[in-house]
Specification:
The protein is mostly helical. It has one domain (23-239): MFS general substrate transporter like domains (Growth Hormone, Chain: A, Up-down Bundle), CATH 1.20.1250.20. It has helices at residues 15-21, 26-60, 68-92, 94-112, 118-146, 149-181, 183-209, 217-239. α2 packs antiparallel against α7, α3 (68-92) packs across α8 (217-239) and α4 packs antiparallel against α7 (183-209).
Length: 240
């Protein structure tokens, strides 16, 4: 039996200092991995429309210029989502905003596979853009908060690199899926993956941050302190 017992979190416990001065724990590594994979999903869905447009044009017999509005609405949604992510994260917490963003762009991407015309794609793409735009800043902020200062810059940079990585994977998937199954299946698959990942990452995040009795005392203290800090931030934001 472990000799470590759960101690109440001291009001003077400095979570930022504990993270910066301590070793990188499994909780922090997992938080970084989950955020990085979320950004990969973000980049994947963000670039899907570009790969699918030629197939849609061929099937519907329309001009490429017809998609200019759909592309514009997606970018508009991304801009609004990026600007809103910080405010929403301060109000509701980093993790809920990230999970909600993934679910939003995943659901919207699946819905594009059911679209009957370009106008419908443009409308749906706007909502997908909201989620895509909000996910990147939410994930990078979560990364920065969990990683020690000495490695924070590299961690955030490598996390951001996951966005073009996701776009590259979308291109590889498009080459395999579009010629065989068509663009609708491409969007069904591309949207289903982040939806499943959102539920998976939420379950894993809950498990790694609820540490009642950890082998390393600092691990449990950091996990509980991060939860406490996030709750205080949301309470303060609601008051102001």
């Amino acid at each position: 039996m472990s000799d470590v017992t759960t101690q109440p979190l001291s009001a003077n416990f400095d979570v930022s200092r504990a993270i910066d001065d301590g070793v990188i724990t499994n909780v922090q590594k997992m938080a970084y991995l989950l955020a990085a994979l979320a950004i990969v999903m973000d980049g994947f869905d963000g670039q899907m429309i570009g790969y699918a447009i030629p197939a849609i044009i061929k099937e519907w017999g329309i001009a490429r210029s017809a998609f200019s509005f759909a592309v514009a609405t997606g970018l508009m949604g991304m801009a609004i989502g990026s600007l809103s992510a910080g405010v929403l994260s301060d109000r509701f917490g980093r993790k809920p905003v990230l999970i909600a963003s993934i679910l939003l762009f995943g659901s919207a991407t699946v819905t594009i596979g059911l679209a009957p015309d370009v106008t419908a794609i443009a409308i749906i793409r706007f909502f997908a853009g909201l989620g895509i735009g909000a996910a990147l800043p939410a994930a990078t902020t979560l990364t920065a908060e969990f990683i020690p200062l000495r490695t924070r810059t590299m961690a955030v940079i490598t996390a951001c690199v996951c966005y073009p990585l996701g776009g590259m994977l979308a291109g590889l998937a498009a080459g395999q899926i579009l010629p065989v199954f068509g663009w609708r299946v491409f969007f069904f698959i591309g949207g289903s993956l982040p939806i499943m990942y959102a539920f998976f990452s939420d379950a894993v995040a809950e498990r790694i941050t609820q540490v009642p009795c950890a082998p390393e005392p600092t691990l449990g203290r950091i996990a509980r302190a991060v939860n406490s800090y996030d709750t205080r931030c949301r309470t303060s934001a609601s008051i102001h």
